[in-house]
Design goal:
The structure is a homodimer of 122-residue chains. Chain A has 122 residues and is mostly helical. Chain A has six helices and three strands, in the order ααβααββαα. Chain A has a three-stranded antiparallel beta sheet. In chain A, strand 2 and strand 3 form a beta hairpin. The longest helix of chain A has 15 residues, at 78-92. In chain A, 38% of the residues are buried. Chains A and B meet through helix 1, helix 2, helix 5 and helix 6 of A and helix 1, helix 2, helix 5 and helix 6 of B. Chain A binds a DNA duplex (30 and 30 nucleotides) through helix 4.
Chain lengths: 122, 122
DNA sequence: ACGGTATTTCTAGAATATTCGAAATAGAAA
DNA sequence: TTTCTATTTCGAATATTCTAGAAATACCGT
């Protein structure tokens, strides 16, 4: 991932509706969701507004789309998201341990599911 | 880190000059750099422009500032950057292995210094 | 072909972001 | 206190982003 791709990705994630859509699509899995269903989940936002934001996310490389019948289905691009996390650690933060080791430790410690499954007990 | 903090941070990083400043300050270390020196490093950008972008970065929580003599010294906030990486993995990507495990593996594999120090040899 | 559903594209307006140069502020030095 | 250096703040111009509604496009069932 180069700088321009990262800028586009950060730009895509810097807007509330789009951040929520991203979360929703990650949760939805590789099967993705139709544009209309995503719009419903976003307080029933207008179709043109959805189209605008979904396009921004696609430009940012965070989601992909495919036509399926009369719907257009959007899915999260997991590999791109992984590359963005990696960019943030390696390129942006220069692999600095105070950022990267700390982030990885916090993630592992809290548990990938947020349930403190590895080192902490409830 | 909550959603609004993350949005502010992504917004701060979604601009070329600011992404470069962030990289520069991470490299500079905890000692940071004076606003003027940062401006020099950014193709000698105007002082008001620097002030604007440094303020955006500070609003985004990515850098902190302190007065030192007649200079104002900016430093990267490593803990905030770590929290942003963690947010991206846990909250945004829901701890999804295809994102988080992949990113951590890629980071570890390429080596924090980008020199393939752990599993690949040159 | 026709009508209905799903989504995008177009047009326009409002809100934000970015940049610049000039003026204001804060501290250091004489 | 005056002057010099470093930086921010202000005011205005331009550019970009976001939103909405209407029209256009694509597919499906009849």
């Amino acid at each position: 991932m180069n700088e321009n791709q990262a800028l586009a990705a950060f730009s895509a994630l810097s807007q509330e509706t789009r951040l929520k859509i991203t979360r929703l699509l990650v949760t939805a899995g590789p099967g993705g969701m139709a544009a209309g269903a995503i719009g419903q989940a976003m307080d029933g936002a207008s179709s043109s507004r959805m189209s605008f934001h979904l396009n921004q996310l696609e430009q940012g490389g965070l989601v992909t789309s495919r036509r399926e019948g009369r719907s257009i289905v959007y899915s999260a691009d997991y590999s791109m998201l992984a590359k963005l996390v990696e960019f943030l650690m390696r390129d942006c933060c220069q692999g600095h341990p105070a950022v990267c080791d700390a982030a990885i430790a916090a993630f592992a410690c809290g548990g990938p599911d947020g349930n403190a499954s590895r080192s902490k007990q409830a």
